[in-house]
Amino acid sequence: MAKLTIVANIIAKPDHIELVKTELLKLIEITRREEGCINYDLHQDNENQAHFMFYENWESRELLMAHLAAQHLTQYKSATEDAVESFTLNEMTQIG
């Protein structure tokens, strides 16, 4: 199976941008050490500081699912429960 690409968009509530950013940054090092993680890169929109985007590649969907169930993701969700305006996750496959 081809690698799985993930694009995750997180929009922080305007008064919680720094909290969300801090919590997202905590995820990077531990996630990059997870089995199946090829890359896990966080971006912040230059014009809308509340918009964060993870660009990720995983060896398989099963390993992505293990990541999504990991304790550090649960802790992130708890820490940012009322701080995130919206969250979308797209599972994609490179075709060219």
UniProtKB/TrEMBL annotation:
- GO MF term list: monooxygenase activity
**Has the keyword ATP-binding been applied to this entry?**
no
Q: Keyword set for this entry? A: Monooxygenase, Oxidoreductase
Annotated ranges, domain ABM: 4-92
InterPro entries, alphabetized: ABM_dom, AI-2_Isomerase_LsrG, Dimeric_a/b-barrel
EC number of this enzyme = 1.-.-.-
Decide whether keyword Oxidoreductase is in the record. Answer: yes
Q: Which organism is it from?
A: Vibrio thalassae
The molecule here is called Monooxygenase
Gene3D superfamilies in the record, alphabetically? 3.30.70.100
Q: What class of enzyme is it?
A: oxidoreductase
